[in-house]
Amino acid sequence: MSEQKNTADVIIVGGGPAGLSAALWCAELRMKTILFEKEAYFGGQLLRIYNPITNYIGLETKNGREMRDRFMSAVEKIDNNDGFIIRLQAEAANIDTAGKKVILDNGEHFSANAMIIATGVRRRKLGVDGEDAFQGKGIIESGAKEKEKVENRIVAIVGGGDAALENALILSDYAKKIYVIHRRADLSARSEFLDVAKKNVKIEFRPNTTVRKFTGTGKLNAVEVANIETGRKGKIGVDFALIRIGVEPNTELLGVELGLDDNRYLPVNNCCETGAEGVFAIGDVANPVAPTISGAAGMGAIAAKAIYLRKNLENPV
Ligand SMILES: Cc1cc2nc3c(=O)[nH]c(=O)nc-3n(C[C@H](O)[C@H](O)[C@H](O)COP(=O)(O)OP(=O)(O)OC[C@H]3O[C@@H](n4cnc5c(N)ncnc54)[C@H](O)[C@@H]3O)c2cc1C
After folding, report:
1. Model confidence at 92: pLDDT above 70
2. 44 in ligand 1 pocket by Cβ < 6 Å?
3. How many angstroms does the Cα of residue 216 sit away from the middle of ligand 1?
4. Ordered domains of the chain (ranges, CATH)
5. What is the mean pLDDT of the chain?
6. Substitution site in 20, 115, 119 for ligand 1 pocket (most atoms within 8 Å of beta carbon)
7. Of ligand 1's atoms, which has the minimum distance to the CA of residue 163?
8. Which of 28, 64, 91, 166 is the right S-S partner for 46, CB 3.0 to 4.6 Å?
């Protein structure tokens, strides 16, 4: 690739709703834009939403994939005279925020005048034995997607927040029994889920309990647990498990100069700019009070517009 092709006005890292929205806005504002997504598909967390999406104003879709397709049809229509490059399976392996440079996992180098970090979040892991080994062999990814699998079976759900309880309720229509294993005494899920779950005879709560390991031969058949208060260890026989213990930001590539907070999220100002000049962060990675698709898309627009306005102030016509 020629040097010119490797330089841009804006580099965007991450092709979820935030990155796609920023890309659309940057290209519409006629800035040379390069968007990198590490996976083989754009969409980020949208690809893990199996329910209808009804809260993105003016656009209702039957699941996240359909919303991703609608977003992509807007992005693919962009005509920016070759000033718009989108790359899949392009993982930013090294990000130099001071020099606004990105090195991809294949060794290609890119640089820009401004950079937008839109790397989102990933599910937090328990970090216990068997968690990886039983993925797809008893540990399921989504209640909405895999509900039929648990018909008349026993399921452990690990976590006590909204996502854990929402999945417990979805699966309770199918499963014989559901254990909700939670390390605290109280659950943090909102009452909309909690009140209904507490009345559901199929759901049994195991508070003050941690998971020690997942066990089985070839397929998951038990969760080993420990009670935090008494120290008592035990084993719960289960056919399936689902882990929902929150998320963490994809910021391990980024340095302290961006002012990462204690949980490694990226604080931003009202232009979505981080502690490093010309480096913006948008969507879930910027720790919004409400991590939403519309919030991510809105932040994409704000960052793009802020970069555009600054560029034009610096280079008035
Ligand atoms: C099950 C579920 C249901 C949800 N339901 C709703 C809902 O009904 N309404 C709603 O508004 N929101 C919902 N959300 C939340 C919404 O999906 C997120 O707020 C939104 O996807 C955030 O977008 P994002 O672009 O910031 O991050 P993400 O969607 O996380 O995308 C980040 C992207 O960056 C890529 N990336 C990461 N690191 C790199 C790297 N080094 N190089 C290149 N690419 C990288 C990732 O692969 C990913 O594609 C739901 C989320 C889930 C999981």
Report:
1. yes
2. yes
3. 32
4. 4-123+247-314 (3.50.50.60), 143-243 (3.50.50.60)
5. 94
6. 119
7. 1
8. 64
For residue 316, name the pLDDT band (cuts at 50, 70, 90): low
Answer whether 180's CB lies under 8 Å from 163's CB: no
Q: Output the pTM of the full model.
A: 0.92
Q: So what's the pLDDT on residue 169?
A: 96
**Whole-angstrom Cα distance, residue 113 to residue 31?**
10
Q: Is the CB of 37 under 6 A from ligand 1?
A: yes
> Which two three-digit tokens encode residue 239?
């056919």
Q: Which pLDDT value is given to residue 292?
A: 97
- Which residue type, as a one-letter code, is found at position 73? S
pLDDT of residue 1: 43
Is residue 29 predicted with pLDDT exceeding 80?
A: yes
